[in-house]
Write a structure and sequence with these properties.
mainly alpha; transmembrane; 28 helices
Amino acid sequence: MWKPFLDRLFRDLLSHDLAELNWQVGLRNALGIVLPLFFGLIFHAIPTAVVMTVGAIVTGFAGMSGTWQKRSRIMLYAIVWVSLTTFLGSVAGAQALLAGGLVVLSGGMAGILAAVSPELALIGTLATNALIIFSGLAIPMADAVPTALKVMAGGLLQLILMLATVPWQPQADGTASLRRLCWQLASYALCPERSVDLRVARALITAENRIGDRAISPQKRWRLATLLRRLDTARSDLVSLHHDENLGEYREILLHHVSQLLKGWSRRLSTDPASSLSLDSLEPLLALDEQLKTEVGPAFARAHHLISTLASIPQAGIDPEAEVSLERWSMPAVQSLVATIRENLSLRRSAFRHSVRIMGTLALGLLVEHLFHLPRGYWVVLTTMVVLKADFFSTIGRGLARVVGTAAGVVAGTLVVVGFHDLVIGILVAMVVFALAMYAIINVNYTVFSMVVSAEIVLLLSFFERVPPFLAMADRLSDTVIGSALALFAFTVFPTWQREEVPKTLGDLVSSEARYLAAILDGTRPALARRDTRVARAAAAASLDHAVNEPAKGLLDRSDALRLMDVLHNLADLLMELEVTDSVTLAAARPMLQPGVERLQQLAEVLYRWPTASPEPAESEMPANPLAGRLERLLGEAEAVLVVAKPMI
């Protein structure tokens, strides 16, 4: 039971991806930390500089990715929120009950915001951390406003630096995500494995979200959306061709040329996709298309459609239909944010359960700090906030990385303080080095990232605490153990198991496939239904991936869930094939395909009510039409899985 989890645990602890190393962001954000420290050293105002550095560090994390407009918005939110929590922490620090209540409420808000967006959840977590730190420093009330203003100044400096470096930054307006999509499609053309297929789906979702940012000019957004839509159509053709053996020797040649073309476009795609994609690179495919025109059959028509779609991409212009679908990709407005929070205020929602768990654990940590009179007890609460996450693996699995990294960072930071002793400039240089590292390696290895973040915090706090460094180190190490233990205890007592969500996420996928099939048969904008299915499929795959690594049984047996997911993958492939099927062939199959919509809806209802419901095995003859026959076979397989499935409570 525990072996898959332990294998993944240690694999995640040591895994690293050097391709994610981002020294450019690291240098920019480190500069935002260097400047206040440099001027603080010159003007003998180190404490002021260090407080500004707190604002710069937090704001730096808030502006790591996205268009510069989007980063500006998120950084402004972070500056305001963190400045407010700094003020509240400074004011309430002397009153333990008030400070504790604010910490608990702020942590709960950070938890519920996970249902809205990762960016807002990150800002909420960073703001809560700032509240914990400043409420534990016993800052005089008269200094509360100046302290908050200093934090705000540090954040604004980081924002100004980000804006100043925009002309030298690679564009993050969706073009980079389209480059990655081209590369993944090129890989799928030659290797149609399920793992590659899911990477293509995730690349499509990422590109949609990036292009949907309203900060991009309408003309560019429409152009990028047109390119995305045509790549998505090409993907449907590729899926269909991989399931069709009737191309004979042409199939391997065609897929090879398509892969080479997409790889070339991935390398050449720049900020103006229409002008950067050359028609010359299409010559091998166009020559092959001339040969295919002499052949007759649906497979050759589909190959011609694929080549025509790819040939249209270099001239991609404004597509008036793109604006309609982009409305669905825009970031939620304030009304939508409030509505989302209101919808999640129920214990049936995982985000609310996580919020309640955070509040209870923070309250318990504050109680432990008070009962045992821990000298630096705020570190217990800070560790708890960092370790406790919404799902099992992030809390237990990556929690180990946080504990190991935090302990190593505490030791490293303390050794720097002891090594430089009264040499302030040495500590400041170390702060800059750690800051550069933590931004650059944030996505490389989580253990090392946790280490440098903890070391940076230790160096910051060394300017406020006047205690022997090794004594502070011992306190923080013990507090790290206590805070981690509280987080693990809280998740054990009040868990959020992903395995409980598997039937629902699979039901969402089946429901989206029912709508997709209905849209194909009715001809009512199947592209939007295809997108919904893609998102649901990625969510179901991620949910199942987490669930199979949990050391306990779920509502749906692992093997049954994996079998059902495989059937639903194949069903999604069939639906994409149906979407690009010629109108005559589809019209002939429509009467035999139509009952599939209702059967899919019934299957979704069974999954939503699982394990209190199970499907009735349908008795029907295999349709003579090949497409309808494949749909009937897949539906039969899905129903058969649930008929014999073992509900595991």
